[in-house]
Amino acid sequence: MRQSARPASLDRRQRTSLQRPDSGAEATPGLSTRFADVLARTLPAGAPVALLDSPWHGNPGDAAIWKGEMETLAASGHRVVYVASVGTFDRRRFDRLLPADGIVLLHGGGNLGDLWPPHQAHRESLLAELDDRRVVLLPQTVHFDDRQLGHQALRRMSRHPDFTVMARDARSLECLRSAGLDAHLSEDPASVLRFDRSPPAASRSGPSVLRLLRSDREGRVTLPCTLTA
User: Fold this and answer.
1) How confident is the model at residue 61 (pLDDT cuts 50, 70, 90)?
2) Whether the Cβ atoms of residue 66 and residue 188 lie closer than 8 Å to each other
3) Measured between alpha carbons, how far is residue 41 from residues 44, 172, 173 in Å?
4) What is the gyration radius of the CA atoms in the chain, in angstroms?
């Protein structure tokens, strides 16, 4: 049930850290926050879906989230009939492939905010254009540096008549609900991934180190002096 809308409070207590999100402090007692379980409670069984805002960029974390989303949807019996990124969404093709009872899913991650404006703008554009469809935003973290922009963006998103958001941390959940959005806590989709293969043997003596680092604005890691680039 959608709560009555009121301005989102994006003070220090609610503005979510991108580095260390709060975990399940606001979970409803007795309800699992596993991504597959939250998805099962949100989507009609077997409903076809379109998965939009696909991560066609170089962030390996988003690629892992995408893989977790796709694996969970397949295991849950949901057929993905249409996929598009920020630059490839085609409304005519979308309408042709997704039936009337299909669900629109928006890729999760950490770009609900003003850190990555193209993705937020695309998300809001889709919500405005697809107001005749059920839309679900997969687990996201909320972060706005500009509080006024944050208030405005969340109010715009809350106008969609059938929109559900999954939050991957408690502060984001509180922020979304305070804006009148139908929000639910869920683990990150990447948490479903399992890596069963043993790493390859080191080609030289001594320990081997695999570094998977980002080069964008979120890549704020200083390497120890013993790990040269």
Assistant:
1) confident
2) no
3) 8, 20, 17
4) 19
Would you tell me how many other CB atoms lie within 10 Å of the CB of residue 169?
26
Give the side-chain half-sphere CA count within 13 A for 159: 13
CA-based torsion, 62, 63, 64, 66: positive or negative: positive
Give tens-digit pLDDT for 91-122. 999 999 999 999 999 999 988 988 878 889 99
Which helix (H) or strand (E) is 137 found in, with range? strand 135-143
pTM of the entire predicted model: 0.76
Rounded Cα–Cα distance for residues 53 and 123 (Å): 8
Q: Which residue has the higher pLDDT, 206 or 51?
A: 51
| Cβ proximity of 116 and 124 under 8 Å | no
CA-nearest of 85, 108, 84, 109 to 98 is 84
Rounded CA-CA distance 15/110 in Å is 13
- Neighbouring C-beta atoms of residue 117, cutoff 10 Å: 11
**pLDDT per residue as tens digits for the range 164-190:** 999 999 999 999 999 999 999 999 999
Amino acid at 43: L
Tell me if 167 sits within 8 A of 142, measured CB to CB: yes
Phi-psi region of 113 (alpha: psi -120 to 50; beta: other; left: phi over 0): left
